[in-house]
Amino acid sequence: MNENPLVSVIMSVYNEKTEEISYVINSILNQTYANIEFIIMYDNPNNLELFHELTEMVQDDERCRLLKNKENLGPAKSLNRGLKSAKGKYIARMDADDYSFPERIYKQVEYMEKILILIF
């Protein structure tokens, strides 16, 4: 891979447990492929405690953006809102109860870049 295109990872969070969401977030932030932006859509405006915990988890990492919906939109609309703010060449979707192996993004970008070379 000659270049390192930006990958936007988008995840919607509603009412997950702090320990679980911390594990999920760290699985993205600890990727071997570092050129990512991690857009976390907070879709539960009534639970400010979890929102503040999420803020503390990601505030020191410039790759993270935590966006709070004014009202509960549901997963699809929330993710679409995150998609509108994405800047990456590629979009990766993450669920709030998933785990990503460390080379997930690297392998996906490597594959997509090979496909682009074959097409053009």
TrEMBL record:
Molecular functions (GO terms): hexosyltransferase activity
Name of the featured protein: Glycosyltransferase 2-like domain-containing protein
Residues covered by the Glycosyltransferase 2-like domain: 8-114
Leader peptide range in chain numbering: none
Domain of life the protein comes from: Bacteria
One matching Pfam family: Glycos_transf_2
